[in-house]
Amino acid sequence: xxERIDRRRFVLRxxxxxxxxxxxxxxxxxxxxxxxxxxxxxxxxxxxxxxxxVGNLLxxxxxxxxxxxxxxxxxxxxxxxxxxxxxGHMTVYRGLDHGIxxxxxxxxxxxxxxxxxxxQNRPDGNVTIDQFIADExxxxxxxxxxxxxxxxxxxxxxxxxxxxSGVRVPPVxxxxxxxxxxxxxxxxxxxxxxxGENQLHGSILDSVLEDANDLARxxxxxxxxxxxxxxxxxxxxxxxxxxxxxxxNEPKPKAPxxxxxxxxxVEDLPMLYELIALALQTDSTRVATLEIGGTYLPxxxxxxxxxxxxxxxxxxxxxxxxxxxxxxxxxDHFGKFLTRLAGIQDGDKTLLDSTAVVFGSGIGDSNSHxxxxxxxxxxxxxxxxxxxxxxxxxxxxxxxxxxxxxxxAQKMGLETDAFGTSTSTFA
Length: 427
Description:
Layout: H1 2-11, H2 25-29, E1 50-56, H3 62-65, E2 90-94, H4 129-137, E3 146-148, H5 175-183, H6 188-216, H7 224-247, H8 265-281, E4 287-292, H9 307-311, H10 317-342, E5 345-346, E6 349-350, E7 355-361, E8 376-380, E9 388-390, H11 401-411
Parallel strand pairs: 1-4, 1-7, 2-9, 3-4
Antiparallel strand pairs: 2-8, 5-6, 7-8
Helix pairs in contact: 1-6, 5-8, 6-7, 8-10
């Protein structure tokens, strides 16, 4: 039976899940129990319907980002001035981080709170909040989530999104590719082939479940937890297959304009934001991430330096000036994105009201390679906004950024009391 399941799971790899059975002690010892595992199910709640996260790989200049005055009367710093129109729709936070070290490599933990190297023994690995949410709401849309970034960035390219199994989610790498994904129909031949693939996967999955259920009736309680995790993986694949079948014959939305060309990461940024807004507006997805990485070339803003090199400025005033130019450009287009969402009606709300948007970085100071005191903005999502909040530590214990992520997940209806390294619900 083990060999049969292993052969079948190989075909299911295209569904982005590995269905390898865990090592079960009772199969080796012959100690068996009577009944199979009972799978828990989660209910749905009411809250923001969508989630977007934007991460910068090289951080922001803290002195030009964080205000001095807390509360609603905070001053607009150099980097916050482009967000003046959105002041009432957002909250700026200081004092939140993940309590980890690692410099440029720890930045990839921005949305998870967990280093990839330390994820192996955790039940949810280093899953990022976007994928955590998408696992619950993703079957309601054509795309469970959209991950957008560049594969040519420093330290391995876009690594903003990770699954529970510790797999990096590969990004859509430019506006041309994202446009095709959202609006361009597959050929009739490709649709027919995909339908055949789905039928084959469904037949194999049925057989895998049959074999696994038979096995579940014979293992002892010692192996129950391991087998429950395996069943959860199978159910995840089943949900994805159902989603693929649901959308295989549904037409995509009509494109509102011609396919854009890929230019460079600086000039492409406004188009990527526009396509994310359209993906949300057409309900093609409810979860999206965008990573701005090391290929954000200063040359396209008239700066003859490398972005990564500038980030290690050594307190050189000219380098810092160039960085502020870069960062202001990024924040300016983020502000335009928020304004765009605020101008789209979503029932009796705006799209911004129904979308929780997180903006920031997993690095606090790239010059010193520190991952503390992260720059964080939360916009939309039905929250009460308009403040700068400096989150104070309790003794030596800082408030984890994952507490805020947990609060977002709960407000989206996920019945969970923990995420990543959270210690409680965010207050």
